[in-house]
Amino acid sequence: MLPTKRHFFSIPLLLTAYAALTLPLIAAPPNIVVIMADDLGYGDLSSYAARDLQSPHIDQLVERGLKFTEFYANCPVCSPTRASFISGRYPELVGVPGVIRTHPQNNWGELSRGIPTVGSQLQDAGYQTALVGKWHLGLSEPHWPNNRGFDFFHGWLGDMMDDYYAHRRHGINYMRRNTATIDPAGHATDLFTQWSCDYLRKHATDEDPFFLYLCFNAPHTPIQPPQFWLTKVQQRQPDVSVARAKLIALIEHMDDGIGKILKTLDETGLSDNTVIVFTSDNGGQINVGANNGPLRDGKQSMYEGGLKVPTCIVWPNVIAANTTTNRRALTMDLFPTLCEIAQTDIPDTVDGISLLPTLLGKEQITDDRDFFYHRREGGTRYEGLTTNAIRRGEWKLLRNSPFSPLELYNLKTDPLEQTDLAKKNPKQFRELSAALRVQIQRGGAIPWQPTLGKSK
Asked: What is the pLDDT along the chain (456 residues), one digit of tens a residue?
């Protein structure tokens, strides 16, 4: 692995020297586009073994770059994973242990103020930064994207939309262009696609590179595809259930939008100098028809189906096409990875690691660390308590309900998490549970609810 700031070397100088010896294109920082889907299941792309779904444009991305088979969201729900991408840290360590929502009594997070974000880091590196689509990391003005490292924001501040066409949540319009409230007409997926294409065309000839963070609401509930796409799926597959057909249509509609973005990159001459990351914020929601492959459970769950997500990274002429890695990684690893790609320092506070050696086809060990997962949530299912997990090597300890005991699995011999080994392996259980308690204590020191305490 390349030395980082922690080794008392200058990352930009090291990368420039390294690039001069190996990959000269690294010397000029590329444009960066990160596309994050919302609740896309591990098995809901044809490139990830879906048989009833067509996702040709995302599949094209997978074919053009590096496919991850062991990539994990930092949390099985939206806000915490997004906080980890934005900060490069475990979400509970930046004030977002759960979902940020409109009403204080149902809110479980506030993104810590004053922390470096991927946007601010890339701004410091000379990038123009933009966020299109779903933010979900703060509804009050201090937390708006324009105040958290993004020069330009065109999208949705809130969590889910109650309607993909009306763009409201609890009757509130959270759609913004920078700080101005807007009320556009159209399906949210089409709007976010168009706004992204507009941004790419506008900045195609700029001297400075850009970082575009595109967050679709799809395929989050409500499962509301345009009728054209639903009809298309049902005519092609008349035997599929209505629920599954609607979800497939919502995903294929999003895939079509991504195809338009890729076409815009081609037409503007940006494709050869743009890194593209595609990922999801958590696993698919099973009760609305999502497919997480053979994995156990889905969204909200600490089992693999809630955490493992489809992910690929494309970097023309740098990352070899049609390659696959089973190296384990987390959403928070994208922050330091993008910092190294942009040739800027990685903040000392970052918990993630840069995956650049893996992208370059070099040797890298990524699983010599504990992986923690943490979620605090309300309602009668959670009562404001937490669910947690720790992964150490092939062992995984988890509590999938705050009212259930810890469970222990060996994912090498039991990847589908069928056999709880907690009682048969007391030593492993004690070691992992002790490490998990320390991480819970770390998160407990961070304010996360602005109505009940002073915001950090």
From this structure: 333 333 333 334 444 344 434 444 456 899 999 999 999 999 999 999 999 999 999 999 999 999 999 999 999 999 999 999 999 999 999 999 999 999 999 999 999 999 999 999 999 999 999 999 999 999 999 999 999 999 999 999 999 999 999 999 999 999 999 999 999 999 999 999 999 999 999 999 999 999 999 999 999 999 999 999 999 999 999 999 999 999 999 999 999 999 999 999 999 999 999 999 999 999 999 999 999 999 999 999 999 999 999 999 999 999 999 999 999 999 999 999 999 999 999 999 999 999 999 999 999 999 999 999 999 999 999 999 999 999 999 999 999 999 999 999 999 999 999 999 999 999 999 999 999 999 999 999 999 988 655 544
Tokens coding 212:
């575009």
Nearest Cα to 341, choosing from 268, 421, 277?
A: 277
> What's CA 369's distance to the chain center, in Å?
20
Q: Which CATH architecture has domain 26-359?
A: 3-Layer(aba) Sandwich (3.40)
For residues 350 and 116, what is the distance between their CA atoms, to the nearest angstrom? 9
Q: Which CATH class is domain 371-444?
A: alpha beta
The domain locations on the chain are: 26-359, 371-444
Residue 390, token pair as written in the block? 């720790």
Phi, psi (deg, nearest 5) at residue 350? -65, 135
Q: What is the pTM of this model?
A: 0.94
Radius of gyration of the chain (CA): 21
- State both tokens at 45: 């792309």
CA distance 140 to 182: 16
Cis peptide before 222 (omega within 30 of 0): yes
